[in-house]
Structure formats: structure tokens, C-alpha cells
Design a protein that fits this description.
Elements (H helix, E strand, L loop, with lengths): L1 H10 L17 E4 L5 E4 L11 H6 L12 H8 L4 H5 L12 H12 L11 H14 L19 H6 L12
Antiparallel strand pairs: 1-2
Length: 173
């Protein structure tokens, strides 16, 4: 719905139908703003088929509420972002190797996420919290397009973005 309104804003006329119901767009549509700028509106299932499920979840194509096992998504995120350093969490077992479960345990300890009955660490809630923070932009994640090489564009921005300390956490620690 937001994209449909965005298209209306740019074109100044109704070019696509608008609905509050997700999945209203039934086919791929292209809208030319100028001779060189084209907007694409498509059903939510067009592009995700080429993207890993974990990335679909982190970028909002797949609802976090429907994720049954969030630990593989946390592992996917941790392979690309130094979460322990970013979140300033100590290893729960004072080890050097981090697993997704260790990261979730550390975050559960830091945020005091505990289960209601047994008062154990609520790692599931911690994992979901990390996924939501990434989706909201509090944990910054960037992914280059397939077959991208740094040689294609050496700019100041691309040099800065490769620094590990570029990744930041906003209002979470």
C-alpha cells in the first residue's frame, strides 16, 4: 500500500490500484516516471524467490511473527555483523566462539528476558528482539548485490562502509 501511494505521489495520478490488504498487486507492473527512471510494483512473491529466507525475514518480506525458528536468522545476521561487539554482550560461557544461541543468551541476560514460570533465559524472545531491531534499522545491515565487486565503484562512501566500526546500534544498549 505504501509503495502504491509513493507511485501516486511521484506521478500525480492513479496508475496502480491501492488496497490496505497485502497481496493486492496481482502482477508485475512498470511505471515510467521519465525516459530513464522506471518504478516497479510487483506482488510480494516475485523477488523473494531469489533471496535467502533469512534475508527475506531481516528485510521485512517475511513476517517475523511467522518465524518458528529464529536462531538460523540470528546466525545469518551474526555472520555479517559483529553482534557481540555491537550489542556489548559478554559470552555466557566465557568462550571465544560465538553461536547464535550464545548471542541470544547474552542478549537475554543483558535485557533480563526470562520465561514466566521457570525464570530461565528467554532466548526465543531475545532472538525475536534482535530480528525486530534489524528490521527497524537499529542494527544496520547492508548486503551487496550478487556478483558485486568493490572494483566497480571505488568511492569515499564504499571505502567508509567497509570499515567494521561503521555498523552502529541506535538506542539499544
Amino acid at each position: 500500500m505504501l509503495f502504491d501511494h509513493l507511485i501516486f505521489y511521484f506521478t500525480g495520478k492513479k496508475v496502480v490500484s491501492v488496497s490496505r490488504t497485502p497481496g493486492h498487486t496481482k502482477h508485475f507492473q512498470t511505471i515510467y516516471l521519465t525516459k530513464t527512471v522506471c518504478l516497479c510494483d510487483c506482488p510480494g512473491l516475485v523477488f523473494p524467490s531469489t533471496v535467502p529466507k533469512e534475508l527475506q525475514i531481516l528485510m521485512g518480506s517475511f513476517p517475523i511473527a511467522q518465524v518458528r525458528e529464529p536462531y538460523t536468522v540470528v546466525q545469518f545476521l551474526a555472520e555479517r555483523v559483529n553482534l557481540p561487539k555491537l550489542l556489548k554482550i559478554p559470552h555466557p560461557e566465557n568462550d571465544d566462539a560465538w553461536s547464535a544461541m550464545d548471542i541470544c543468551d547474552g542478549w537475554a541476560i543483558k535485557k533480563d528476558f526470562k520465561t514466566a514460570r521457570a525464570a530461565r533465559l528467554d532466548t526465543y524472545r531475545a532472538a525475536n528482539s534482535l530480528l525486530r531491531m534489524t528490521l527497524e534499522g537499529k542494527i544496520c545491515l547492508y548486503i551487496y548485490p550478487p556478483n558485486w565487486t568493490i572494483d566497480k565503484s571505488i568511492t569515499l562512501f564504499s571505502l567508509i562502509i567497509h570499515r567494521q566500526d561503521y555498523l552502529s546500534v541506535k538506542n539499544i544498549v
